[in-house]
Amino acid sequence: MDNKNSILLINPTFEPSTSTNCSLLVKIGLKSFSYAIIDRETNKVNAVYDEQECGDGAKKLADRLKTDPYLTLAYQDVKIAINTPNSITIPIELYSEENIGANAQYFPEHHSNNIYVDAQQHFNFRTIFSLPKNTDDALNFTAAKRFHENAGLLNQAEQLNSASLILDFTVGNVNLIYLNDNRVIFQQSYEIADVEEFNYYLLLMINQLKVERSTMVYICGIIHENDHQYNCLLKYFNAIEFLTISNDLDQDILDDMPAHYYSSLLALSKCV
What we know:
This is DUF3822 family protein. With about 270 residues, the protein is of the alpha/beta class. The chain is built from six helices and 14 strands.
């Protein structure tokens, strides 16, 4: 433990000298930051770090890059999923490689000159995004692959065939994806100060998109059965399941943690 809002779990047999066989997965939320180290030869999760309520997830990563020896190891690959307001989703039939830069005019905030593309082949769209300049400068990982924050959740969503609502909770924030007919209908990130604010955004989505009570709800992140947000969902939906990742990762170091806590982070291991 670094402080009351963070946790670091390390496999006691992990040797930093073997990091070139490993992937580093990083997830930067609006006010949270987490990473995982996965051995690509054994599929073993060797480390998980998580910090909630850190004020600014990108700044926290920049700070930890100066002090955390695990972040400066040489890795086989690095994947970073990042929260940013500067993103546009474009259907694949309207996407043009030549016009990527022109989309920057629609970003709501100042950004760096680097434009990234997150390809969602299964759902037939591209997410074009950019980061605040200070954030982009801080992410000085060599050859890191950058993804939009929801990339891990969308990877998990590929397995869902019926109308589904996926919610990924961090402290004070929720990422939400609504799917129907194997299409992403809506995705958004909301800051939520309390359950009343969560209820407001949930009802807004339900009413505007006419989401049925029979829609299957999948939840992950910092949420527990019968807590306020869970019970709020029960008011509007018949069935709720915790979303755990369906891959062959050895997650022994997380045995004492709820299985759904790090689903969206670990799902990055399947993103390409």
